[in-house]
Amino acid sequence: MHYDLTTLGNGLRIITEEMPSLRSVALGCWLDTGSRDENQNEAGVSHFLEHLLFKGSEKLSAREVSDTFDAIGAESNAFTSKEYTCFWARLLDQDLDTGLDVLSEIIQRPAFRPHEIDAERQVVIEEINMYEDDPNDVTFENFTRAVFADHALEEPVLGSRESIRAMTRDDIDGYWKRRYGAGSMVVAAAGSVDHDKFVELVSERFGDWSGDAVDHDLAPADVSPRVNVTRRDTEQAHIVLGGPGINRTDERRWALEVLNHVMGSGMSSRLFREVREERGLAYSIYGFKLAYADNGAWGVYVGTTPSQTDTALGIIRAELAKAVEEGITPEELERAKGSMRGGLALALEDGNSRMIRLGRDELAGMEHLSVDERLAKLDAVGLDEVRSVAADLYGAETRMIGAVGPFAEEDLTQYLAV
């Protein structure tokens, strides 16, 4: 993987990867801040800011921002996570300076007009309403609250209706001043881009911006068995069973990738085969993992008829125990590696995927690995390593459940047992 990295005098980092076969550029401005960095009176402000910055600056109105991107046929948006915020655009290489003009203006000089804050406040509340109407989203939020209880990672990225309604312009402006700055930002680009010229463009627009790097309150979560249920009379029960995992720098992550693939990724996985194909108990079942700077989690999602919950969770627990006791087979190991090789290569075929990996890894202080280097990490994973990480995670006594369905929390407590 060839990439170029330059750090400006004000601390802003610029990272690019040239892809000569493309005429487009994927551009991202990554801020080293997310929901885990919010104070109590700021719950949801990182995501709220994502909306508000597109309302423009004193120089640009919201209409002018959208019209400018539309006039050059660009795609633009932003996203917020627990640990970072990204404002991005995909555009023709000849329009790169225009895209940078807009993004630099709204990020450095947001207007925060009171009437626009109030209008967008209701938009965010409607977004919260939408998520709360989706049982899948609520299930995962319940699980996150269980595994990261009383930790900075516990709170939802969107905040709550109450926190968004109570948030003042001073709260928003104070957070922006505290967390947004040159030292906390990475500008990433992939595609038809020349690094030296791109550095000039970014320096012209962000070179005078100030601001130091930001800190994060990192600490291990104080985990304990927990069940979080939102009781609803649904036709299908939505359940996540899981537990604490590993952080994003843990070298066991490569073995966990393989284990998760064997257990719950794709139609050949153990859980899909046993729960859906053999028993017909669910339409959707899969495994997943979460990895942050200081903590992680693993989990299995299943959606099943409430009356079949006992059977479905019984099979899931049995398969997890089998992975701990017996590990995986050589055939499963090779099949998982083959599938992941193809998936990894395909995921990095386009400029946007490359930009996201560049920006996210640079912001997080992760090593930039080429496709071949990533494949080598996967190829080095052996059966003993997979079994070991299964014992460490699946075999741990501390488990959590997040669920939506016609249950009380005490109805699901029995399934926390290993």
3D architecture notes:
The structure is a single chain. With 418 residues, the chain is an alpha+beta fold. It has 2 domains: 4-206, Cytochrome Bc1 Complex, Chain A, domain 1, CATH 3.30.830.10; 226-416, Cytochrome Bc1 Complex, Chain A, domain 1, CATH 3.30.830. Helices cover 45% and strands 18% of the residues. It is built from 16 helices and 11 strands. It has a 6-stranded mixed sheet with strand order 1-2-6-3-5-4, sandwiched between helices. A hairpin with a 4-residue loop joins strand 4 (75-80) and strand 5. Helix 3 runs parallel beside helix 8 and helix 11 (309-326) crosses helix 15. It is globular, with a radius of gyration of 23 Å.
Topology record:
Layout: E1 4-7, E2 13-18, E3 24-31, H1 45-53, H2 62-71, E4 75-80, E5 85-92, H3 96-108, H4 114-133, H5 135-147, H6 161-166, H7 169-179, E6 185-191, H8 195-206, E7 226-231, E8 237-244, H9 253-264, H10 270-278, E9 285-291, E10 296-304, H11 309-326, H12 330-347, H13 351-364, H14 371-379, H15 383-393, E11 400-405, H16 409-412
Parallel strand pairs: 2-6, 7-11
Antiparallel strand pairs: 1-2, 3-5, 3-6, 4-5, 8-10, 8-11, 9-10
Helix pairs in contact: 1-7, 3-8, 9-12, 9-15, 10-11, 11-15, 12-14
